[in-house]
Design goal:
Elements lengths: L1 H5 L4 E5 L9 H13 L7 E5 L2 H11 L4 E5 L16 H7 L3 E4 L2 H6 L4 H14 L2 E6 L3 H5 L3 H12 L9 E5 L13 H19 L1 H5 L1 E5 L4 H8 L6 E4 L6 H9 L4
Parallel strand pairs: 1-2, 1-8, 2-3, 3-4, 4-5, 5-6, 6-7, 7-8
Bound molecules: 2-phosphoglycolic acid (PGA).
């Protein structure tokens, strides 16, 4: 398993959430420029998922660079009477190459259940986007000893059949670690990532073996190296610390060591 994990190219993805006016694009430019000035291969893929208002402009400034651009959510339909919603095709058209689906802030704040997340992941694939599918237990569920069960259920219900390593990424984000500064122990992360890897291999075979599994929840420059050293952690989904180029780049640099 460790051998397979090492052969997977990691991804450090920033999730800006509902943060950032146009001036914030300067941070994305700083990331782009630092990647250009750094080693030919930073050792990891690097992505920022901005709010949709900044998507096209960021895709433009990142064109031809090592900085990839993704989106934070999508509707499952291609088009139609869905006021305020954005389709995966629109995100692709605006320059996104990936989209986060099933983030706990969507599951919790917008009542999105696994079947909705699965439809969104399918929509991402239909549009030619990589789906970054988030799963993770609440603190109550972890305290009740249900973390593996909850994550297993979310995974089974949220991933579409036929998912491939090239178009699907799983992000394990314990809800209680998001934006709190609290992170699980390495043992806890390793246990869940190992269980996710086994479930992916069982369901998708070699594709599941090769799928990236990101950890998310209070990843910072100070803890990134420790998190990246855990088996079956193939990168990070970074919220707060992705808003400042220096912090985000320090997390990216943790992969170079
Ligand atoms: P955080 O958010 O890094 O601010 O905890 C992570 C996420 O929600 O993706």
């Amino acid at each position: 398993m460790a051998e397979a994990a090492r052969s997977i190219r990691p991804l450090v993805a920033g999730n800006w959430k509902m943060n950032g006016l146009k001036a914030q694009l300067a941070e994305a430019m700083a990331v782009r420029d630092a990647l250009a000035a750094g080693p030919a291969d930073p050792g990891t893929d690097v992505m920022i998922c901005p709010p949709v208002t900044l998507l096209a402009a960021m895709a433009e400034l990142a064109a031809g660079s090592k900085l990839q651009v993704g989106a934070e959510d999508c509707h499952w339909e291609m088009s139609g009477a869905f006021t305020g919603d954005i389709s995966a095709e629109m995100l692709k058209d605006a320059g996104a190459r990936a989209v986060i689906v099933g983030h706990s802030e969507r599951r919790g704040g917008h009542g999105e259940r696994d079947c909705i997340v699965q439809r969104k992941a399918k929509a991402a694939h239909r549009a030619g986007l990589t789906a970054i599918v988030c799963v993770g237990e609440t603190l109550g569920e972890r305290r009740a000893g249900l973390a593996l069960e909850v994550v297993g259920r979310q995974l089974a219900g949220s991933l579409p059949d036929g998912a491939r390593a090239a178009d699907t990424i799983v992000a394990y984000e314990p809800v209680w670690a998001i934006g709190t500064g609290v992170t699980p122990t390495s043992g806890e992360v390793g246990e869940v990532h190992g269980a996710i890897r086994r479930a992916l291999s069982q369901r998708f075979g070699a594709e599941g073996e090769a799928m990236r599994i990101l950890y998310g929840g209070s990843v910072k420059p100070a803890n990134a190296a420790e998190i990246f050293a855990i088996n079956d952690v193939d990168g990070a989904l970074v919220g707060g610390a992705s808003l400042k180029a220096t912090d985000f780049l320090a997390i990216v640099a943790a992969y170079a060591h």
